[in-house]
Amino acid sequence: VVIVLLLLVEIIKHTSLATAFKTRYTYRNKPIFSTLFLLVALVFSIYACINGVRTSQEIAYKPPTAATIATQYDQQIKELEERNEKIFKRANWKGKLNSSSTDGKAYAANEQLITQLTGKAATERASKLNAAITKYDNKHTKQSSFRQYIGYFVEFGILFCNGFFLLFMFTSSFEHLARIRAKFLQNGQVITDSIKDIITPNDTAAKPPIIGFQNNRNNSDNIKSDKSITNYDNIDLIALIRVKKRDLAAYKWKLRNNKGSEQNNRQKITKFEQEIEQLQAKQDKLKGGNNA
Hints:
Blueprint: H1 2-25, H2 32-59, H3 74-91, H4 102-187, H5 193-199, H6 234-256, H7 262-291
């Protein structure tokens, strides 16, 4: 359950970060909600990591005990106890020693010395135990702090690497789109509105596609309004009027959506309307001549 929960938190972090980059770089908006989800997931992830480190340190906490502390009296006490054990085995009668005998007196003197040495050993052991526990606690605290710093480093490292990857992916995509746009502009091709909105907020005029004519297949941008068109037939005039209407519609769209200069858009609209009227008049004249 814990592993699944941690994986879910990491997925939320990655998704929130990706959404934040997409909102900022693609839609040009402030990633408020995605940033909020990212912060909540990051705080929970750091808390779980640090709490796990503390729990593992508490489980691994095993301070030294009195049994592990040796003193300078331990060996002497052990030798006296072994000596008394031999005396007792040799001189006891039905589990008792004669205290007035030589063995009994030696046994009693050894027991008295053992008691004295045991007291001294206990004092020394307590002092050494306190020092050992203090040393162990300091070492344990340093290890715990170091592991917590490692936890912080790992969490922010994952977030940084993930963010760097997403930033690289988005910026390289935009650079690729910018190269495509520059290539299309250089070749006089049509740029779709969606690509223009992604690359730059400054909209440019949509250029009409090249349309061929029967007797002249040049772009309409190269045809001046005062050029003689008596060599064109009705089909050519229809195609040329269609191109001019597309130009007119493009600049009307720009005017409605506040794209580009308003004065320039109105001038272009007026120009194309006049050209369309002239072309339609030529078309009507040509039709009248054919009917005659």
